[in-house]
Structure to design on (314 residues):
């Protein structure tokens, strides 16, 4: 599995969280302004981030928003705009820098918005990030869609995340993280439960789940799970790899194609419905090891306390 070095991950995540992080990028000319957000009767706030930067943190008191517009050309500053619109019980906030970046070619240029917002913890938050960056802390319900950008979520309630080719770091959720991963990379730590609706060609790294983990499918991507207090249930695995370590409950995998599954230090049993040409390695299994059908693949096992049921190769 491809991983970013831990020091680099920490540096990237910190850069998205610190209030002065926007200034790490060039800011030749700037304009700052404060906006008051009218949340009376609103149940959700939606941010369209685009290619810009957004930081949200939960706080008591009135909702506030501070924006910093940065550009290498002073006459482009008026084209860097934060817009807000109320639609029913949703407040929509758009960070618009597209017009400021048009017509500039073949020379160094920057134009972006860096926005910091404080919101009540109990209001739902939705963010849409293209190739920009977002960081959220303390919100109880978060929905996020990320293209090639980056997102950091910390100390929150629940998270629903759709990630295309970008990067995501998630730490300390009270409830469930529900994710869809394309070719991007996701790191998740210390959450209540985890549901992965699909993992295509990206990488998923998970450490510390207090409940169950459900992964509907793994394509050619890699998933690494450690310190799982509940059960792990996985659907079809294509050519990707799954590594499990320290699972307190049961492990169930519907099928393995040409990929590999390595399960170690599992408190319960391990059950695999079918293996095609892939490999299952089971080490330190507290319960039974069962494989329903096997083609040209392999099964290796060590330290299985329960029964071992593996059919002969077809």
């Amino acid at each position: 599995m491809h991983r970013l070095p831990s020091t680099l991950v920490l540096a990237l995540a910190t850069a998205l969280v610190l209030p002065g992080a926007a200034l790490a990028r060039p800011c030749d000319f700037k304009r700052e302004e404060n906006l008051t957000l009218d949340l009376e009767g609103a149940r959700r706030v939606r941010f369209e981030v685009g290619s810009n930067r957004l930081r949200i943190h939960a706080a008591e008191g009135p909702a506030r928003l501070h924006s910093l517009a940065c550009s290498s050309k002073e006459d482009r500053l008026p084209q860097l705009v934060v817009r807000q619109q109320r639609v029913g019980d949703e407040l929509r906030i758009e960070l618009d820098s597209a017009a400021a970046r048009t017509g500039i070619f073949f020379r160094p240029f920057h134009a972006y918005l860096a926005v910091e917002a404080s919101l009540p913890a109990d209001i739902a938050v939705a963010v849409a990030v293209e190739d920009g960056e977002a960081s959220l802390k303390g919100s109880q319900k978060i929905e996020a869609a990320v293209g090639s950008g980056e997102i950091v979520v910390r100390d929150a309630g629940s998270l629903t995340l759709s990630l295309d080719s970008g990067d995501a770091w998630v730490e300390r959720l009270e409830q469930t993280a529900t994710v869809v991963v394309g070719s991007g990379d996701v790191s998740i730590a210390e959450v209540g439960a985890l549901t992965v609706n699909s993992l295509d060609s990206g990488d998923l790294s998970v450490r510390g789940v207090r409940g169950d983990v459900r992964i509907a499918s793994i394509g050619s991507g890699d998933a690494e799970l450690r310190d799982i207090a509940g059960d792990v249930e996985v659907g079809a695995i294509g050519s990707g790899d799954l590594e499990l370590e320290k699972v307190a409950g049961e492990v169930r995998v519907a099928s393995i194609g040409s990929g590999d599954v390595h399960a170690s230090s599992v408190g319960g049993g391990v059950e695999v419905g079918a293996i095609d040409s892939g490999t299952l390695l089971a080490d330190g299994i507290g319960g039974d090891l069962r494989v329903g059908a096997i083609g040209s693949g392999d099964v290796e096992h060590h330290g299985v306390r329960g029964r071992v049921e593996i059919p002969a190769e077809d």
Remarks:
- The mean pLDDT is 91.
- Helices lie at 6-17, 98-101.
- Residues 6-17 form the longest helix (12 residues).
- Residues 211 and 230 are 5 Å apart (CA to CA).
